[in-house]
Amino acid sequence: MNAILEKYKARLVNISSRNRSLVMRKIYKKNSFDLFSLNKFEKGIHNQIIEFLVTRSLGKVRLLPSQMKYEEELVSKYKKELEDKYWADINTYLENPVTSEELEAYKKDLKAKLEKEYDEKVILVKKQAEEIPQVFSQLSYLHREINAIEKETGRYELYVGYPYVEGRFKDGTFVKAPLLLFPVRLLKEKENWLLDNIEEQYILINKVFLMAFEKYNNTTLQKELVTEFYDLSEVQIENQESLLNYLKDAGIEIKGKVGDKAEKFKEHVGKDAGSEYALGELVVQNYLVLGRFPIANNSIYNDYLALEQGMEPNRLLDKLLINTNGDNTSKKALGEDKQEIREEDFYFMSSLDYSQEKAVKSVSDSDQLVIYGPPGTGKSQTIANIISDGLSKGKKILMVSQKRAALDVIYNRISQLNSKVAIIHDAEKDKRAFYDKTAAILDAVAPKDYSMVEMQIKEKSRKIDEDIAELETLAQVLQKKRPFGLSLQQMYAKSNKISSKEDPGYEEFKTLREKRPFQGMTYDSLVAIAKDTANEIASTYYDYRKTIDENKLIAKLKDNLDSFDLQELLDKIEEQLEQGLEIKLSVTETPHAASLLEMYCQNPKGVNDASIANLAAKINGEENQNLLVKLNNGQWWNPMYWAKYSKNKSQEEANHQEYQRREGAIKDELLAVNKEIAAFTNKMSFLSKALMEEEELNLLRLIYSKAPLNEYLKEISSALNHYEEFRSLSIKLSHMTTEQERVLAYAYDNSKDKSHYEQLINMIPELSILLEISDAEKEDREGVERYKKFNLLIEEINTLMKEKQSLIPELIINKWDTKLYNTLMNNQVEEKELKRQANKKRKLWPLRKYIGQFRHILTDLYPCWLLSPETVSEIMPLEKGFFDLLIFDEASQMFVENAIPTIYRSNAIVVAGDDKQLRPTSIFMVRLDDEEEVEDIETAAALEEESLLDLAKVNYDYVHLNYHYRSRYDELINFSNYAFYNGRLEVSPNLIKLENSVEKPIERIMVQGTWVDRKNKEEAEKVVELIDKILKERKENETIGIITFNIQQKDLIDDMLEERAIKDDSFGNLYNAEINRMDGNEDISLFVKNIENVQGDERDIIIFSTAYARNEKGKVSVNFGSLSSEGGENRLNVAISRARKKIYVVTSIEPEELEVEGTKNNGPKLLKKYLQYVREVSEGDKKQGEALLYSLADVKAPEANEAANKGELAKAIYNKLTELGYEVDLGVGVSGYRLDLAIYDSKAGRYVLGIECDDTAYEGSKKARERDVHRHRYLKSRGWKVIRIWSRDWWNNWQGELERIKENL
Q: Residue 435: is its pLDDT beyond 90?
């Protein structure tokens, strides 16, 4: 860890030779101005300026006269001087006696001499006066740069440096730095530039020089110096000598310089700059320079020094820098869990989309989180709600960004909480405002009861959660897949209701409902079978069944008969039939033959002798039972019994013998008949070869019934004649499944003819759906109809959410006011001094001292702070875990080294940014970085990654924001979405049709420009014309931004705009108001920026000047500047995603003229494609534009009519609406938030209604909160009016739903 901190500390620029606060080799027009040079226009003005600065005068110093006045005043002055000299010389001449002739001659010579002198001076004056516009321009450049930096970073870094120290440190490092820095403002007043002291800011001793002195001399100061003071007299600094003595007391030896108070700045350029000085020699130079002197990073450097002395272990830094887990196993994507967001767990103060809510939830789930926020996805809105949620839970929060705009936007987003928020861009410049705000809050602090509002919030949260749970239940009833294989919603969408005899399919549904033949079968299987109606199987089955109906015996024939068998059988049948006799079983009509035939019918397989014997015994028993009656009745007590006993006994024996005889006779009779039967069955036995076993038994029963067989034999003959044809049909059906046979058999059995048969097969899936619907509605009609509460639930949820959101600020303010009051009551002595310091009018404490002294009170007073990383180090105590939560915004643009001390101060961290946008830039800072190889695998990433985001994404958990809000038209963001985010962003469909609209979201303006000195004058002129037109004709007071692809073109446009503003008063008034335009404290002014530094900005209208053109030799430059570097394409991504309403691209070439094929990196290639896309959109070629988009991303372009084939319900609605004459489009939009249908009004020139079908609505998301609440809210926020059509409502009453659609138009 120490090695990493040492590396990062070394990267800081505070004491490098690249920092003009330490080494100012020359005057650069954008960053500095030599005030001594003004002496040519006003002698001694340098002394006036020095006096003005040292005394801290409240007046202002005019730096530059107007050209005309300057010339007029000097000419008048010289004229008067010469007149005075003329008469003085005449009077002197007249002191001696002279003649009148001599006097006239003297006058003539003197006049000629003085007139010549006058003419020479006038020429000189005019020459000097002509330099004034150039000097004015130099001050304008400086003013413009200082303001741009302030707008960019919030830091106002304009000082007058005086005097300077020059020489070499002991290690040979050259130094040329201001010793004192006087804070000033540069003010433009018509044609004048004024210099104004900033009274509330300190005069500074240059800390950069002091630290460099220690570093490069390898020493430490002998005593701690006071480096900030309101008045030099505070430290007895009255002149140069006393200043040098003050520094000498700390061990800094600087030689004084005798002479004028100020002198012209001397440049030191080249490798041997400063070689005239000995090692360790430092000398005062009385340079007087107005310029930008960056000193803020010194505080970060000091933090590193402090950390080196005693840094406590810090889990967040360990995870970030050395990945204490040793791998990435603990890094995870958050926000993708199945757990629903519970409203009662969070305190949102404004509406969020689902991905934003997930991001806020992820902050609770992880103490080290990366939030990826592509352009326009509401990152600021998310951060604002992370803050409101955290403050509601008692967390102390620090939000950090190097972009002023990012801090200002958050401050505006949480404006209701501003009494609990401290925003400081510049610790010096904003000090007075901070103290005034603090004093006002302290005067009004009082305890407040927040229990009631807290209870209201909880109750509303509970009800919201209940309503969303109800939406989920609704979804489950309609969307849950049933055993039939479809959800109820799918069933409604795929069927037409049958409720009366007049409805098509009524009789078929009635029959199906009665028989319910397809229990257990699924919709897919029924559909698959229905699809086969177009194939051979259904027709084959019909022919198969038809053949059976025509000759039922054909199905009873064995399947192994060959042609010989068939012929043999036919011959034998013919032989039987040829006799012309009735063919039937004929037996002797004996008394018991019928009983035997009946036995044969019951046992057609045959009767054996034993069975016949049993039958004879049975018959005998039934007919001769009397022969077995006992004559001796067993009444042995009766004398008569014994008297007849012998006789009776003999008769019984005789009867028994007769009984047996009769049985034998019956048996013989039956055996005789059996022989006759056997003879006939043997005669017919040849048929057993043809018949299946069951049919053979049927034939035997027919024989035994003595029925005639003539017709049967004819049917057999017919069946045999058609056997081979039938067998072919049977083989074709051999692979038919049981389910297929069930369906086809039902269709055959319940159809009138083949046409009806085929129709019925196709109807069966839908009829089965209707049966399933009927059963479901009977089972749970209340549950099925629960969706009717949908609109009421959504309305209630939205109302409750708004009501809750409105209560959150009150909760936060009351909770923290009460906490502050209690803290003050427990620290009353500190409270008095806290208030006294806040109410002072002069000599305010430095904020670092004030905050350090009263840190715990001030973090109760302001539980949320919005700062830059430099300001954090400037004013905040370096204490581990000083804040509960730290939020970095625009982290892709922050160097890691600037963030480390800030991270140390917090217990949890959120890193928000986009790795597809800009990496850190040195536009507003200088940074050292050596190319040392790092071999330690564990720390390699920490030292190689440039931005905080690049490093954090390696080891921290992460979550994505997915919904784009910025752009009114999807064409403005589509290229970025597909080229950089693989089409992942959810973008609202356009309300207009590009091909029908006169107003284009992107407009290309071609000019005949030329590339000269990396500039294109013609394009710049066109841009200025366009600005003029927009300012005078805009209808909605649109904000404007201009983006160029190099600095030279930016400066040229800036110059031309200012020149137009000077020459054209009407334009000048509009322009000057626009460049200073604010919304609250948020800058929304017109900007002209290079592609490097537009991240974080957004405007209604963006104008591009590409500048690329053919040069004077007719060749197109292939120097694409920073776009050509690694990651250069990210600059393009940022630039093209800034517009809310409109993009103008001013260009001089066609995309094909750019030769980018040989470029190493992707930036130029994507620029060419973007210019192609601009052309297609500008010309209204939607098809080509979309084709180009899909070529950029790893996503499949939608096939022709894909949307039209997607949903049954959408197609049904589309057909009905178009029949009524409405202009309807299917599948409107190109991203995941497509609308199923949209109705277009050509008169209004826009879509007037979007229609969402419940079948597709439930496909996109599994959560009701996203699907039902956020989706509708998002589309509404983008200007869409959307209604949902429910499949069941359309199924029940499509006419009524059409009326509802009409009512919503």
A: yes
CA distance 790 to 1283: 11
Cβ–Cβ under 8 Å, residues 167 and 192: no
Radius of gyration of the chain (CA): 51
Distance CA 1272, CA 1293 (A): 24
What is the Cα–Cα distance from 62 to 317, expressed in whole angstroms?
A: 51
| Structure-block tokens of residue 1184 | 């080509």
Bond from prior residue into 163 cis (ω within 30 degrees of 0): yes
Other Cβ atoms less than 10 A from the Cβ of 945: the count is: 16
Cβ–Cβ under 8 Å, residues 495 and 503: no
* CA 969 – CA 982 distance, rounded (Å): 18
The structure tokens 């009407």 sit at 1066
Residues 6+ apart with CB under 8 A from 172: 279
Please give the Cα distance from 990 to 981 (Å, whole number). 20
Listed in sequence order, the residues at least 6 apart from 607 whose beta carbon sits closer than 8 Å to its beta carbon are 596, 599, 600, 674
H or E element in which residue 814 lies: helix 790-826
Long-range contacts of 114-117 (CB under 8 A, 24+ apart): 114/82, 114/85, 114/86, 115/82, 117/82
**Widest CA span of the chain, in angstroms?**
225
Q: How far, in Å, CA of 780 to CA of 1248, rounded?
A: 37
What is the rounded distance in angstroms from the CA atom of residue 825 to the CA atom of residue 876?
24
Sign of CA dihedral 110, 116, 122, 124: negative
Element housing 587 (H / E): none
For 826-872, the pLDDT digits (tens) are 999 999 999 999 999 888 899 999 999 999 999 999 999 999 999 99
Measured distance CA(136)–CA(67) in Å, rounded: 10
Distance CA 756, CA 504 (A): 13
Q: Per the structure block, which two tokens stand in for 1280?
A: 């869409």
Q: Whole-model pTM?
A: 0.81
CA–CA distance, 64 with 290 (Å, rounded to integer) = 14
Identify the CA nearest to 478 among candidates 1284, 1282, 1281, 1216: 1284
Structure tokens of 868?
Answer: 């830059």
CB 684 within 8 A of CB 585: no
- Which one-letter amino acid corresponds to residue 1043? I
Work out the burial of residue 1199: count CB atoms within 10 Å of its CB; fewer than 13 is exposed, 13-18 middle, 19 or more buried: exposed
Q: Which one-letter amino acid corresponds to residue 881?
A: G
Sequential DSSP letters for 959-1007: EE--EE-S-SSTHHHHHHHHHHSTT-SEEPPPSS-GGG-SS-SEEEEE-
Kind of pairing between the strands at 1223-1228 and 1235-1241: antiparallel
Express each pLDDT in 701-716 by its tens digit. Answer: 999 999 999 999 999 9
- 1164 and 1025 Cβ atoms separated by less than 8 Å: no
Amino acid at 713: L
At 46, list the tokens.
């340098």
Question: What is the spatial distance between Cα 696 and Cα 716, in angstroms, rounded to a whole number?
Answer: 12
User: What is the Cα–Cα distance from 87 to 110, expressed in whole angstroms?
Assistant: 10
Tokens of 1187: 């084709």
The string of pLDDT tens digits covering residues 916-942 is 988 776 544 433 333 333 334 344 445
Rounded-to-integer distance, Cα 472 and Cα 342, Å = 13
Q: Is 1225 helix (H, G, I), strand (E, B) or coil?
A: strand
CA 398, CA 905: separation in Å to the nearest integer? 9
Alpha carbons 293 and 161: distance in angstroms, whole number = 8
Residue 944: pLDDT band (50, 70, 90) is: very low
Which of 1201, 1300, 1206, 1203 has the alpha carbon at shortest distance from 1255?
1206
Burial 710-746 (b: 16+ CB within 10 A, else e): eebbeebbebbeebeebeebeebbeebeebbebbbeb
CA distances from 928 to 16, 40, 1275 (A): 7, 39, 48
List of residues 6+ apart from 235 with CB closer than 8 A: 226, 229, 246
